[in-house]
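Lecture notes, part 5. Sequence design as translation. It can be helpful to think of inverse folding as translation between two languages: the language of shapes and the language of residues. The source text, in structure tokens, appears below.
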């Protein structure tokens, strides 16, 4: 068992690593100890090991993460994310991605950064809510439909509202 050198101020100097893919906290703690005198980052991505959840997603399908096309000089391996996160079946990847070499790479990597435009083209849910979403000009100039009138309340129907379980 190896001993950890303590940080003079932060002791074991714990850090909760974030998952590179979903950016959620991983179910683990790193004890960085002395860490060259630096305080451990409380939340940082340390590596590209997927968290348990993302590992599960990668078994079921391929993770798609929406991102901006990196500009020259930006880190193409960690592009600016625009908020979309989906898991799609391998079959969709096979049908939707060309050329074949890219499609095969996506199936192997189990994760892929995609542009907002691609999210729109594939009609992935929520594509229009992405940061810097592509605006469909034609849709934008259409007048907004009138708000539907409230249907008269009916006795004995409890369709609306759902349960409070999600609160
Ligand atoms: Zn994750």
């Amino acid at each position: 068992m190896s001993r950890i050198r303590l940080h003079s101020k932060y002791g074991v100097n714990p850090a909760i690593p974030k998952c590179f893919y979903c950016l959620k906290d991983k179910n683990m703690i790193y004890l960085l100890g002395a860490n060259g005198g630096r305080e451990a980052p409380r939340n940082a991505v340390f590596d590209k090991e997927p968290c348990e959840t993302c590992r599960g997603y990668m078994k079921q399908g391929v993770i798609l993460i929406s991102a901006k096309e990196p500009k020259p000089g930006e880190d193409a391996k960690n592009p600016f994310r625009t908020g979309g996160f989906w898991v799609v079946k391998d079959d969709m990847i096979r049908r939707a991605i060309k050329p074949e070499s890219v499609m095969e790479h996506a199936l192997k990597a189990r994760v892929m950064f995609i542009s907002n435009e691609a999210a729109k083209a594939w009609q992935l849910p929520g594509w229009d809510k992405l940061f810097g979403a592509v605006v469909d000009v034609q849709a934008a100039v259409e007048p907004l439909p009138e708000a539907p009138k409230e249907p008269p309340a009916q006795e004995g129907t409890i369709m609306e509202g759902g349960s409070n379980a999600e609160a």
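The translated text above is only one of many valid answers, since several sequences can fold into similar shapes. The longest strand covers residues 81-88.
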